[in-house]
């Protein structure tokens, strides 16, 4: 009875001993591979300060080259740091100064000088200024401009406001949507802006009387009336800003939106800076344009909403154009009843510029 009880214990010890021996035999190769001395002999040496200086200075050795997507840039791209410094130290402050300064100027102008009212009561006779197709394109472009300006400002400054207020989760989702909107609406805005500029180009060629308009500050210097054709000097400046700086912003935006036409990182970085500076500057000037075209000038908004302006407004702000088209004026009552001015009302006369 004693011998039968001892055998199970003996077999347990035997099996355990055999398993231990097998385990030690299998572990020997693994332990040999994990030998610290062996690893040190084949490992890449630590990158010291001298190595990083070589990388940063432009060393083109295979160990320092970034080969992703055919890139020829070093592991440390010094131009990226230059772009970051220009963006954060110059472009961002410029935007705050330009836009914030324009808001302050507009507020002071409104408080000190106030709205530009009509010099005489309205006559009740209307002149066609903007046909429907121009108004439709204008409001589409204006709406897209506002959306792009807000999303662009959010991309540049949003992290300093919304991230601290709502946290990383909300801010990340907001930025993802902002980038999507900005990137997809940008090309549409660019195409429609070019169409609008081409449509109103004939009204915006410089004329001699524009110099007098600028000398008198658009009528704010002195008491004499300043001559203006279909477009005054200020409106022409806004047009040519859009036709120059605006086209640059559009072109740089296309470079950023479609990074698959061979442009390298340097090109993308400069396009980003040019795009930001141009867009911020145009946004600041656009605030002045919006103010003058809405609450700053009595009757100005009517021309771009209804297409028609009162005779008094035309005489006050575009007297040379008024003299050419005054015979086409139509009573407000007739217009409300569906009447049309002579000539079909398709396009205002542009002869005076």
From TrEMBL:
<keyword id="KW-0349">Heme</keyword>
<dbReference type="InterPro" id="IPR011577">
    <property type="entry name" value="Cyt_b561_bac/Ni-Hgenase"/>
</dbReference>
<feature type="transmembrane region" description="Helical">
    <location>
        <begin position="184"/>
        <end position="201"/>
    </location>
</feature>
<feature type="transmembrane region" description="Helical">
    <location>
        <begin position="90"/>
        <end position="112"/>
    </location>
</feature>
<dbReference type="InterPro" id="IPR006471">
    <property type="entry name" value="Formate_DH_gsu"/>
</dbReference>
<keyword id="KW-0408">Iron</keyword>
<keyword id="KW-0813">Transport</keyword>
<feature type="domain" description="Cytochrome b561 bacterial/Ni-hydrogenase">
    <location>
        <begin position="129"/>
        <end position="307"/>
    </location>
</feature>
<comment type="similarity">
    <text>Belongs to the formate dehydrogenase gamma subunit family.</text>
</comment>
<keyword id="KW-0812">Transmembrane</keyword>
<feature type="transmembrane region" description="Helical">
    <location>
        <begin position="132"/>
        <end position="157"/>
    </location>
</feature>
<keyword id="KW-1003">Cell membrane</keyword>
<feature type="transmembrane region" description="Helical">
    <location>
        <begin position="270"/>
        <end position="292"/>
    </location>
</feature>
<feature type="region of interest" description="Disordered">
    <location>
        <begin position="332"/>
        <end position="353"/>
    </location>
</feature>
<keyword id="KW-0560">Oxidoreductase</keyword>
<keyword id="KW-1133">Transmembrane helix</keyword>
<dbReference type="GO" id="GO:0008863">
    <property type="term" value="F:formate dehydrogenase (NAD+) activity"/>
</dbReference>
<dbReference type="InterPro" id="IPR051817">
    <property type="entry name" value="FDH_cytochrome_b556_subunit"/>
</dbReference>
<dbReference type="InterPro" id="IPR016174">
    <property type="entry name" value="Di-haem_cyt_TM"/>
</dbReference>
<feature type="transmembrane region" description="Helical">
    <location>
        <begin position="237"/>
        <end position="258"/>
    </location>
</feature>
<keyword id="KW-0249">Electron transport</keyword>
<keyword id="KW-0472">Membrane</keyword>
<protein>
    <submittedName>
        <fullName>Formate dehydrogenase subunit gamma</fullName>
        <ecNumber>1.17.1.9</ecNumber>
    </submittedName>
</protein>
<dbReference type="Pfam" id="PF01292">
    <property type="entry name" value="Ni_hydr_CYTB"/>
</dbReference>
<keyword id="KW-0479">Metal-binding</keyword>
């Amino acid at each position: 009875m004693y011998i039968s009880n001892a055998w199970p214990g003996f077999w347990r010890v035997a099996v355990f001993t055999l398993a231990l021996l097998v385990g030690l035999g299998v572990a020997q190769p693994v332990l040999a591979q994990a030998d610290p001395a062996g690893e040190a002999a084949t490992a890449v040496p630590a990158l010291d300060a001298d190595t990083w200086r070589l990388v940063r200075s432009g060393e083109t050795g295979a160990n320092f080259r970034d080969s992703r997507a055919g890139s020829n840039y070093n592991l440390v791209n010094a131009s990226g740091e230059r772009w970051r410094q220009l963006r954060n130290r110059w472009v961002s402050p410029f935007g705050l100064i330009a836009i914030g300064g324009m808001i302050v100027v507009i507020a002071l102008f409104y408080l000190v000088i106030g709205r530009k009212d009509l010099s005489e009561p309205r006559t009740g006779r209307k002149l066609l200024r903007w046909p429907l197709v121009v108004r439709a394109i204008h409001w589409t472009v204006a709406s897209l401009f506002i959306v792009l300006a807000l999303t662009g400002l959010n991309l540049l400054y949003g992290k300093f406001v919304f991230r601290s207020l709502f946290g990383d989760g909300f801010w990340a989702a907001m930025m993802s949507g902002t980038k999507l909107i900005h990137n997809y609406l940008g090309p549409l805005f660019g195409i429609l802006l070019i169409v609008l500029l081409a449509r109103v180009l004939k009204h915006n060629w410089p004329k001699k009387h524009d110099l007098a308009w600028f000398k008198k500050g658009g009528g704010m210097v002195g008491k004499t009336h300043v001559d203006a054709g279909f477009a005054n000097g200020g409106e022409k400046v806004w047009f040519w800003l859009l036709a120059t700086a605006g086209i640059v912003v559009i072109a740089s935006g296309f470079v950023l939106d479609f990074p698959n036409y061979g442009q390298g990182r340097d090109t993308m970085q400069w396009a980003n800076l040019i795009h930001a500076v141009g867009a911020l500057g145009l946004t600041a000037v656009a605030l002045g344009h919006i103010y003058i075209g809405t609450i700053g000038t009595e009757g100005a908004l009517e021309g771009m909403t209804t297409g028609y302006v009162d005779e008094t407004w035309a005489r006050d702000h575009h007297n040379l154009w008024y003299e050419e088209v005054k015979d086409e004026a139509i009573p407000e009552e007739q217009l409300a009843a569906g009447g049309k001015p002579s000539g079909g009302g398709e396009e205002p006369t542009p002869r005076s510029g």
